[in-house]
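Key result, reporting period 2: structure in, sequence out.
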């Protein structure tokens, strides 16, 4: 038996990847533009790489850049898995419902009661949505519409190696699905998700109130908000069609997105695309201040919590 000190301790393995090569891989991953999750920012710190990437073609870009200094793909994959903050290639496909997820993790009386009410609200608003949609098909003076802002569309969007490292331009796509009626419309019924910053706020209410008082024969505008985490809107199917059609296409300027959206559906008719200009964008804060005079209390003197509102009527 050997009783001496083990001299192997503290020495790196003979086949260990050199530290400077590991740092080069990390620097490479740092250089690629990333975005946080559109839906799960509160629950996850994970960052997402462009959806047209994979580990294989990411490694291909890296190996061409480093040539003989490149590590093998297994080491590259290991470093990317250990990268902080965590990286992912594919974006989440749909919203995550915090209430449903919590109910799955916790089995308590309180969580069950909240979950039950949550499910009831979800079913009620879905039934109301279907009813309003059917009514709009029957009644000539009623139009149904849903709307949503799509996740940020990025430019440049192509398979060129250098594009992955380029600064990206953000393109916003606000989508409206409607029942396409012509004639004298008196009642407009909107459905939207529960995003307070975008829709469920005083500025939007002021704009709807202004429209009722100034636009054509419109007498009533309703906007109802889906239950959080279950915003199943027709506008989302349009977004899915756009994202599917975008795959394997090269987009360099904002007008390319306009052409892409117009072409991504042909039947029963193509999507109509309106390209906004700077003078199409309005600041509604001043309008809201003038029109919405009572913001914190209703006519009965009760406190109004805008974040909890499910139905606005103008």
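The corresponding designed sequence is given below.
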């Amino acid at each position: 038996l050997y009783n001496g000190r083990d001299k192997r301790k503290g020495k790196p393995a003979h086949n260990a990847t050199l530290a400077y090569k590991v740092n080069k891989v990390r620097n490479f991953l740092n250089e690629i533009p990333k975005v946080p999750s559109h839906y799960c920012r509160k629950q996850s710190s994970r960052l997402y790489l462009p959806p047209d990437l994979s580990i294989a073609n990411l490694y291909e870009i890296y190996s061409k850049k480093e040539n003989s200094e490149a590590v093998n793909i297994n080491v590259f994959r290991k470093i990317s898995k250990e990268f902080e903050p965590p990286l992912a290639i594919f974006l989440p496909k749909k919203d995550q419902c915090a209430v449903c997820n919590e109910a799955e993790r916790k089995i308590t009386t309180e969580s069950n009661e909240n979950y039950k009410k949550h499910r009831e609200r979800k079913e009620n608003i879905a039934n109301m949505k279907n009813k309003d949609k059917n009514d709009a098909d029957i009644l000539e003076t009623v139009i149904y519409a849903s709307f949503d802002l799509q996740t940020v569309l990025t430019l440049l969007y192509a398979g060129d190696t250098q594009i992955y490292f380029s600064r990206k331009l953000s393109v916003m796509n606000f989508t409206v699905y409607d029942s396409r009626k012509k004639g004298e419309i008196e009642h407009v019924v909107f459905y939207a998700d529960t995003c307070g910053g975008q829709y469920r706020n005083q500025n939007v209410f002021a704009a709807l109130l202004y429209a009722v008082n100034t636009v054509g024969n419109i007498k009533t505008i309703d906007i109802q908000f889906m239950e959080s985490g279950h915003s199943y809107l027709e506008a989302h199917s349009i977004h899915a069609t756009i994202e599917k059609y975008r795959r394997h296409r090269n987009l360099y300027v904002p007008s390319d997105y306009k052409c892409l959206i117009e072409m991504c559906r042909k039947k029963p008719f193509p999507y109509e695309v309106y390209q906004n200009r700077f003078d199409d964008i309005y600041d509604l804060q001043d309008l809201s201040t003038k029109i919405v005079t009572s913001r914190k209390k209703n006519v009965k003197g009760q406190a109004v919590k805008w974040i909890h509102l499910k139905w606005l009527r103008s």
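The beta strands are 35-36, 47-48, 87-88, 142-149, 153-155, 169-171, 174-178, 187-192, 220-225, 311-313. The chain has a mean pLDDT of 80. This case is discussed further under Risks and Mitigation.
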